[in-house]
């Protein structure tokens, strides 16, 4: 992807940053929260309206429908992440951002018109139904364990199963449903379908309280009971759903890294300000090596995370699937940002564990980030398998 150039990207990023800092951050204390302490639809819609007015709604997708390349997207999404509300306001939040990317890559013209356009315009949220309940031994980090099924019935497909951690399902208008095909010509592969929400065949059965609360609609468990979907609402071809999942997941993992890097930039700013103002034992905290060194280590981790994001973005911009690179970035960035958030809490002491600043929330959200889109251990295992494959290939080549 060639992109729009550094100067134009910098202008968009600066506009987004000014909007998040000046307009969005004051809303962080807004009391409009649901019983899971997530932002209400009313609050999100108000913020989107302000972003639309400021010209920063869905800033990574241009007016002609073209998408910034991944390196350019990073510059923009990092800035939206400066507040937990920033991605919601600017329409760059998960799962919408990843779903928009997938539909833009794979969707037919009609699917784009009907399902992608409302997401880009910010007139509706979406949900990605892939993960399944662990209690049923369903698909989680291993999508090959998928137990939700789909079968043909005339000009429709019928889907049955259960899903878990379906982020934003409550209140979403667009759903992407993933199911394993029972049809012989699909060879047991998965299919993806686009559906309008709500649908009476998709029943929210439970919304667990989780450590994070930045996303409206919760992380829902749902039952899919004889969901009938017209055949023309299949995304791509039958049996190729796992391939499309990879098309989505690599840039989506990287987008998480981008947004949470912005959040940790902000947390580091707050901790730095605190350390330069707070006096203990006769001098400011930053002049105590134990505190000053933590902030210095933050600088190093933040820069390394930024460089890892840029490296992975460059790989994806070549058109490569980038699954190995995105796994490496997901591990390196999530673990580095966890260290940053933890140090920020520690530097601020008692203040760091209160909701007086956003630092406490950033710490909780980053902890979740280490699990979402594949926990660290799964990515390391995947990388270890690649190392073994490469070693075997090298050995075979050496003995020819």
Structure characterization notes:
Keywords: FAD, Flavoprotein, Oxidoreductase. Belongs to the acyl-CoA dehydrogenase family. Residues 127-225 form the Acyl-CoA oxidase/dehydrogenase middle domain. One of its GO terms (biological process) is fatty acid beta-oxidation using acyl-CoA dehydrogenase. The strands form 2 sheets. Strands 1, 2, 3, 4, 5, 6 and 7 form a 7-stranded mixed β-sheet that branches. The chain is of the alpha+beta class. The mean pLDDT is 95. It has helices at residues 6-24, 41-54, 70-80, 86-90, 96-106, 109-120, 241-277, 289-317, 323-348, 359-369, 376-398, and strands at 126-129, 149-153, 156-167, 174-181, 190-196, 202-206, 219-230, 279-280, 283-284. The longest helix has 37 residues, at 241-277. It is globular. The chain folds into 3 domains: 6-93, no CATH class; 127-239, Beta Barrel (Butyryl-CoA Dehydrogenase, subunit A, domain 2), CATH 2.40.110.10; 242-398, Butyryl-CoA Dehydrogenase, subunit A, domain 3.
């Amino acid at each position: 992807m060639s992109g729009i150039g550094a100067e134009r990207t910098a202008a968009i990023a600066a506009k987004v940053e000014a909007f998040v800092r000046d307009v969005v951050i004051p809303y962080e204390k807004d009391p409009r929260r649901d019983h899971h302490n997530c932002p209400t639809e009313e609050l999100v819609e108000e913020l989107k309206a302000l972003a639309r007015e400021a010209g920063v709604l869905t800033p990574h997708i241009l007016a002609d429908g073209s998408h910034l390349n991944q390196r350019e997207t990073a510059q923009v999404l990092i800035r939206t992440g400066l507040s937990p509300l920033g991605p919601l306001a600017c329409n760059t939040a998960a799962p919408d951002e990843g779903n928009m990317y997938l539909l833009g890559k794979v969707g037919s013209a009609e699917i784009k018109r009907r399902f992608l356009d409302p997401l880009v315009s910010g007139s509706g949220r979406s949900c990605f139904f892939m993960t399944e309940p662990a209690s049923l031994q369903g698909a989680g980090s291993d999508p090959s364990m998928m137990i939700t099924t789909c079968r043909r019935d005339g000009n429709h497909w019928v889907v049955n199963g259960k899903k878990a951690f379906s982020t934003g399902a409550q209140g979403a208008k667009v759903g992407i449903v993933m199911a394993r095909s029972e049809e012989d010509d699909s060879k047991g592969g998965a299919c993806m379908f686009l559906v309008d929400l709500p649908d009476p065949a998709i029943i929210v059965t439970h919304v667990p309280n989780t450590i994070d609360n930045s996303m409206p609609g919760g992380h829902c468990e749902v039952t899919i009971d004889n969901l009938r979907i017209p055949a023309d609402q299949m995304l791509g071809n039958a049996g190729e759903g796992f391939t499309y999942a990879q098309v989505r997941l690599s840039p989506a993992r990287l987008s998480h890294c981008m947004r949470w890097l912005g959040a940790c930039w902000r947390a580091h700013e707050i901790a730095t300000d605190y350390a330069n103002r707070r006096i203990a034992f006769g001098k400011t905290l930053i002049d105590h090596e134990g505190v000053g060194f933590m902030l210095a280590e933050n600088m190093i981790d933040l820069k390394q995370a930024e460089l890892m994001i840029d490296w992975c973005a460059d790989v994806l911009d070549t058109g490569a699937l980038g699954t190995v690179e995105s796994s490496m970035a997901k591990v390196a960035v999530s673990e580095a940002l966890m260290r940053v958030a933890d140090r920020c809490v520690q530097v601020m002491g008692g203040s760091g564990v209160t909701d007086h600043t956003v630092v406490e929330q950033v710490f909780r959200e980053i902890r979740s980030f280490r699990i979402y889109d594949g926990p660290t251990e799964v990515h390391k295992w995947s990388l270890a398998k690649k190392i073994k494959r490469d070693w075997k290939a090298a050995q075979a080549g050496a003995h020819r």
